[in-house]
């Protein structure tokens, strides 16, 4: 395809939370209301994908710690679940949903057959108990994702997991599923045989899982365990593996390692009229999981050349940020999606710079005139995604250029991110921009990053960004996208 055609089709779409819907003709798809209904129609029946995990040893049992054992029985139609949770060593006053908005999924709760009060979706226990079991039933809301040729269901754990409050300081939790005949489950949590052992963040941050019948594969690349659950028959196993394996390698090339031990993909094919990947979204509750919605007709070359997977994976180098600060994480991920693909031969250098240039133009043309931090905070309401993402990408490019210029390429944005990432590790809770900016500044040894970030956040107009096309910066641009084929683990010869 010609770059021009590609770029027009690849326009940014609305981003819902940390997800990215890509539309035709710059028309946003919104994850609610009419447009979502349209997606459901396109998809037909709910279609989800699941993924597999390598079995792991269960954590050793420490008798001094509280335990919570969940048994989750999924309805035959995947429309809900009955849950029994038994606690030991925890003084529990109530059970609360993971997200405030999902309490309405609760249909009732009981202790030994006696009905409990459930105001606003919270399950009130009559008296704090250190050894008791609670039964409750939930109905899953209308699924967000569906595929026409799969009956598997993609369900957030917020639909069935209620956590104990007060939350024990140390809790060993296990989850066992009882599934309809031949059903499978896939979640990004450690597991041993059929039992999952969710970490604390699974009780506070949403993540998606898959129930039902789906294809799964696991492999290791860049020293990372990759689990893929795919709903529907295409892209084929080999193509899916090549596409996502190379995306992981390209993302790992940033620092010579991937920032997680494992990553979980849910692949939900959906017809998208010429687009290769129409949606991507990363979630971190108890593990890193990425939902991707590719076209079943996309060739493996088209999938590899697409930006969405590398964008979502790039988020895993960064912490989650509060809404007003997300321009930085979205901006850096947007910058990395272009630079990493060029370095690893998944797109040509020329195409990377053209896409950056055109992205900046889209960012300049859009927005509501707010300061960037306000624009970022309100973007789910205003739809100012281009403005937020591309202003953030301009910050990333400016930072990269200045670091390189001041250090003769000894220091780069990629190196600074790789070093800074150790500050937040795999933390799932959001942090403020100051944490990220300070870590980048300290990792790079450069004195300008915090101040530059504050300047961008307060700026209402789109930044001037001469680095993208000025002849003065031609050599630095060439170095930014120069081949890193060894780090990428594959030939960096561009195929397009
Ligand atoms: Zn993003």
- Major sheet size, sense and barrel closure: 9 strands, mixed
Shape: globular
Seen as an oligomer or otherwise, the chain set is single chain
Low-confidence segments, given as residue ranges, are: 1-18, 21-56, 491-496
Rounded mean pLDDT is 85
- Structural class assignment: alpha+beta
Binned, the helix content reads: 25-40%
Tell me the span between the first and last alpha carbons: 9 Å
Bound molecules: zinc ion
Rg, rounded, reads: 23 Å
**SS strand fraction:** 15-25%
Q: How many helix segments?
A: 14
The number of E-state strands comes to 19
Describe the structure.
The strands form three sheets. Strands 3, 4, 5, 6, 7, 9, 10, 12 and 13 form a nine-stranded mixed beta sheet that branches. A seven-stranded mixed beta sheet has the order 1-2-18-19-17-16-15, covered by helices on one side. Among the domains are: about 65-210, Sandwich (Immunoglobulin-like); about 320-490. It has helices spanning about 5-10, 35-45, 235-250, 300-305, 310-315, 325-345, 350-365, 370-380, 385-405, 415-425, 435-445, 450-460, 475-480, 485-490; strands at about 15, 20, 65-75, 80-95, 105-110, 115, 125-140, 155, 160-165, 170-180, 185, 190, 195, 210, 215-220, 225-230, 260-265, 275-285, 290-295. It is of the alpha+beta class and about 500 residues long. The protein has 14 helices and 19 strands. The longest helix has 23 residues, at about 385-405. Helix 6 (about 325-345) packs antiparallel against helix 7 (about 350-365) and helix 9 packs antiparallel against helix 12 (about 450-460). The structure holds zinc ion.
């Amino acid at each position: 395809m010609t770059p021009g055609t590609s770029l027009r089709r690849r326009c940014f779409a609305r981003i819902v939370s940390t997800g990215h819907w890509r539309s035709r003709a710059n028309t946003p798809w919104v994850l609610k209301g009419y447009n979502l209904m349209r997606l459901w129609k396109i998809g037909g029946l709910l279609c989800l994908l699941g993924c597999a995990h390598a079995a792991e040893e269960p954590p050793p049992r420490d008798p001094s710690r509280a335990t919570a054992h969940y048994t989750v029985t999924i309805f035959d139609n995947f429309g809900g679940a009955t849950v029994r949770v038994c606690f030991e060593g925890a003084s529990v006053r109530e059970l609360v949903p993971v997200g405030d908005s999902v309490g309405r999924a609760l249909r009732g709760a009981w202790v030994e057959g006696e009905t409990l009060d459930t105001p606003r979706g919270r399950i009130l226990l009559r008296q704090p108990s250190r050894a008791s079991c609670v039964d409750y039933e939930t109905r899953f809301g209308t699924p967000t994702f569906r595929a026409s040729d799969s009956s598997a269901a993609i369900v957030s754990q917020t639909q069935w997991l209620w956590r104990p409050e007060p939350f024990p300081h140390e809790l060993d939790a296990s989850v066992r599923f009882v599934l309809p005949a031949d059903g499978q489950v896939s979640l990004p949590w450690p597991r041993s045989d059929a039992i999952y052992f969710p970490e604390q963040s699974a009780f506070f941050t949403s993540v998606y899982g898959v129930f039902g019948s789906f294809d799964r594969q696991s492999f290791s690349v860049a020293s990372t365990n990759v689990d893929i659950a795919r709903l529907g028959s295409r892209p084929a196993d080999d193509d899916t593996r090549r596409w996502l394996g190379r995306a992981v390698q390209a993302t790992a090339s940033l620092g010579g390692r991937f920032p997680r031990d494992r990553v979980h993909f849910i692949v939900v094919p959906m017809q998208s009229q010429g687009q290769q990947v129409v949606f991507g979204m990363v979630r971190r509750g108890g593990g890193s999981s990425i939902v991707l919605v590719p076209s079943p007709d996309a060739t493996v070359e088209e999938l590899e050349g697409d930006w969405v997977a590398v964008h979502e994976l790039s988020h895993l180098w960064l912490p989650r940020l509060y809404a007003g600060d997300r321009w930085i994480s979205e901006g850096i991920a947007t910058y990395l999606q272009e630079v990493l693909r060029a370095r690893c031969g998944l797109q040509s250098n020329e195409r990377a710079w053209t896409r950056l240039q055109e992205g900046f133009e889209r960012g300049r043309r859009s927005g509501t005139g707010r300061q960037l931090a306000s624009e970022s905070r309100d973007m789910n309401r205003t739809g100012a995604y281009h403005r937020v993402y591309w202003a953030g990408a301009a910050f990333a490019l400016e930072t990269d250029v200045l670091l390189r210029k001041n250090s003769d390429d000894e220091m780069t944005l990629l190196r600074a991110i790789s070093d800074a990432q150790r500050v937040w590790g795999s933390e799932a809770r959001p942090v403020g921009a100051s944490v990220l900016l300070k870590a980048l500044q300290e990792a790079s040894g450069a004195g300008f990053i915090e101040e530059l970030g504050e300047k961008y956040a307060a700026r209402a107009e789109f930044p001037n960004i001469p680095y993208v096309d000025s002849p003065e910066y031609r050599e630095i641009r060439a170095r930014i996208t120069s081949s890193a084929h060894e780090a990428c683990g594959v030939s960096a010869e561009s195929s397009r």
